[in-house]
Amino acid sequence: MASLSLNQIRGKTSVSEFTTTRRRSLTQTSRVGFRIFASEGQAEPDLSVSVNGLQMPNPFVIGSGPPGTNYTVMKRAFEEGWGAVIAKTVSLDATKVINVTPRYARLRAGSNGSAKSGPIIGWENIELISDRPLETMLKEFKQLKEEYPDRILIASIMEEYDKAAWEELIDRVEQTGIDAIEVNFSCPHGMPERKMGAAVGQDCALLEEVCGWINAKATVPVWAKMTPNITDITQPARVALRSGCEGVAAINTIMSVMGINLKTLHPEPCVEGYSTPGGYSCKAVHPIALGKVMSIAQMMKSEFNGTDYSLSGIGGVENGGDAAEFILLGANTVQVCTGVMMHGYGLVKQLCTELKDFMKTHNFSKVEDFRGISLQYFTTHTDLVRRQQEAIRQRKAVRKGLQSDKDWTGDGFVKETESMVSN
What we know:
Elements: E1 8-9, E2 12-13, E3 49-51, E4 54-56, E5 60-62, H1 71-80, E6 84-86, E7 104-108, E8 120-125, H2 134-147, E9 152-157, H3 163-174, E10 180-184, H4 198-201, H5 204-217, E11 222-225, H6 234-242, E12 247-250, E13 254-256, E14 259-260, E15 267-268, E16 278-281, H7 286-303, E17 310-314, H8 320-328, E18 333-336, H9 338-343, H10 347-361, H11 381-400, H12 413-418
Helix pairs in contact: 3-5, 5-6, 8-10
């Protein structure tokens, strides 16, 4: 990954010599492109991407959660070749964060949520944000940036409804040299009574105010992580972008109850006989995530002209094809969290190989060649009806053959005859 030069941001010097300027000074390629540029003679497709000025060797990003919970695992992610790492969400006071065990439950194909065998298609967690002291996490952020200055490290942050707290948290994480910030407006469980996570992302008025605080303070690119637990995900995404965020990420987990153990009659995951609704992820959420990302991408293309803004796709990515789908719908990057928990950090090598294979099949030389090109094939149901009626009319016209004797030609006589034969 290429390192970036020092830039002046909003009249201030960047906190990291590898952090680029905010969106207002970017000259970035349009986010959604619909033309395909086939490359000739290039043996290996180029997976590198530039997102909000951040240079990544590939579009694969460790999603915020257990895979980014401490120095050791984030270091492992960099060593394995992930394009970027988003650390587990931090807040000012970790003493309020108390996790329980067990805190995960899995759904297997063809069974209810308490089965022990079969392919895993769903994953629920009731895990909270980082329970480690902020000072410890900040120290590790700084150490990682010192050891991997040309790699992209993104801090995920979440705070209570308190402007001063948000400003303090932003200031402290930026001092470590992180390259960008992802704001967790989407955790579906945990501390809604403190107006944290999805409690903000589901309230557009509150979201607008908090985004205003954040973007007035931040000097690095800011991504707003969206909750799917809302009727129209484009509404908070629009608010976040209009309030100064450089990008949005979607989706976080879906509120769920994994299942009931049919022997004990207790819910899963079971903690001392009890449970609580949690966040659902893994392969089963992939189609839902694609739908949400498609809606956001269409909105961004229509209302923001796609330029200077980014979209990070999240949900059920376990292979290169899953990732290609998000990119085809307009995503600049693809985040993986549960997939790493199931398959390990080496998964990135498989993702890169399979994405390259896909690109070779279609003669794409770089990610931008196909990003967003499938958006053009989505329309309304009314338009689908019109298109099918027109197609049927045209097929009938072809089968009907010539309309008049004057339409016969000498060169096409045999084909013209065949067009009017019924068997």
